Structures are given as structure tokens and as C-alpha cells.
Amino acid sequence: MYKFRLFSQKIENMSDNLEKSYELLLRHESRDVFPVKEFGNIVSDHSKHENFIIWFTDSILSILEAYPDINISFNLDHQELEYDETYVRLRKLLKFKSRITIEITETLPISRKTDYFSDINILAFKKLKSMGFKIALDDVGQGINSLGNMLRLLDIVDRVKFSTLNFRYIGDLNVQVFLSMIAKITSKAGKELVVEGIEEAQFSSWVGENITQLQQGFLYSVPKIIWPREHEGVLVKK
How far is 61 from 83, CA to CA, in rounded Å? Predict the structure, then answer.
């Protein structure tokens, strides 16, 4: 079994300085990077994923118990939504569901294990919702989390996340136009919007004034290790 660590990055609420919300980030055992190859090997193998999701949910449970005053977000990708053990293990976290947001990443599923007719497993989102978890659609506009699929899921998800890092090539003005469009759609639907990739104070101020109070990026928080337990107490602060 591969060995991983979990890092945390604060999700800043500019309208509530007391809110303590963090995204958990899966990292390589020896480097502060996402383990792309290793994780790909895991999610493509049912038995390996079963071992992984046990470790992952046990770690999340321990973090929630160790830090009773924080809310956390963690990622699942679309392939993980195809496995029954994902839901079995998520039930272990139900007593903390009011403090949890599950972020569904933009990575396309490798193979379908359940039947559905659209290009995205809407039934899986509904299943998570019925369990009582808050759901976020991560990196909207990327991969399978297209604008079209965002609109399909808008009545199910609670939060939309948009990373400016993926769109910098179109220029700042176009990013602002695109963000404004996303903000109008999510606001009308009564959904939260988090803008990621915030690295400059001037842009953060514009986002706060025109788009959303929920922001995430190096301007506010550099990811730091939070788990395994020997690192307890180093949760990143503002």
C-alpha cells in the first residue's frame, strides 16, 4: 500500500474571520505534491481503492476528532463514486456530516461500475446528498466538471469551486468576465461559490467586492501537513 500524507489549506471567508474551514489535500509521502501516478493506480484497481478509502476515511475521522472546531472539505473523484465501498466508508463519517463538504474533482472516471445514461453519474451525487453531506463541484470548467454538467447538477450541489489558475491564459479581463457569469448563475441558484488560486491582494479585493467572499489560495494560506498524527498541532492558520 502506498503511503500518503494529508495537507490542509484554509478556505477564507472574508465576511467571517472566525470561520475555520480547510480543504484536505492528498500528498505524496516524501514530497508536497499530489501523487498522480500512485493515485491513478489505486482508483483503477477496485481492491487497492478499498484499502485506500479505509485509510483515507479513518484519517479524516481522526482529524475531525482532533480538531473539533473546524470544518473540512475533502476530494473524491468520479471513479470513486462508482465503488460501493466509498459509500460504506463515508457512513463512518456521518456523525460529523454537518462539518464536512465533499468536493468532487474534475477527473473523468476510468470505467463505469454502475449504470447511468448521461455522461456524468447524477445518481451518485443524489446518493451523497441523501446521506446528508454537503457537496461541492470542484474546478468547474475543467474535465468532466464542464459548465454543462455544472448546470445539470446545480439543484443537487451546495457549492461550486472555480480555480483561476486554469484560466490565466485567457487574460485577467476575460477571467473577470467568466467569473462574473459563474457568479450570476450560482447566486441565482442560491449556491456558494469559492474562487481558488487567489495569490494577489488586488485581485482578492475585486473578487470580494464583485464575486464572492469565499476564497482560497496562497495569499491566505500555504498548504501544510496536518496528518499523520505525529504532525498534529501544525494546522495552518491565517
Answer: 20
> The C-alpha cell of 112 is what?
463505469
Phi, psi of 134 (to 5 degrees): -80, 140
CB neighbour list of residue 54: distance below 8 Å, 6 or more residues apart: 89
Q: State pLDDT tens for residues 95-146.
A: 999 999 999 999 998 887 676 667 899 999 999 999 999 999 999 999 999 9
What's the CA gap between 225 and 35, in Å, rounded? 15
Of the candidates 63, 67, 136, 68, the one whose C-alpha atom is nearest the C-alpha of residue 106 is 136
* Closest by Cα among 96, 76, 99, 90 to 22: 99
Q: What is the pLDDT of residues 182-199, one digit of tens each?
A: 999 999 999 999 999 999
| Residue (of 220, 231, 222) closest to 66 by Cα position | 231
> Could you count the other beta carbons within 10 Å of the beta carbon of residue 127?
16
Contacts of 115 (CB under 8 A, 6+ apart): none
CB atoms within 10 A of CB 224: 16
136 bridge partner residues = 103, 159
Report which of 87, 101, 98 is spatially closest to residue 53, judged by C-alpha positions. Answer: 87
DSSP letter (8 states) at residue 145:
B
CA atoms within 13 A on the CB side of 117: 0
Question: Which residue has 486554469 as its cell numbers?
Answer: 166
C-alpha cell at 41: 493506480
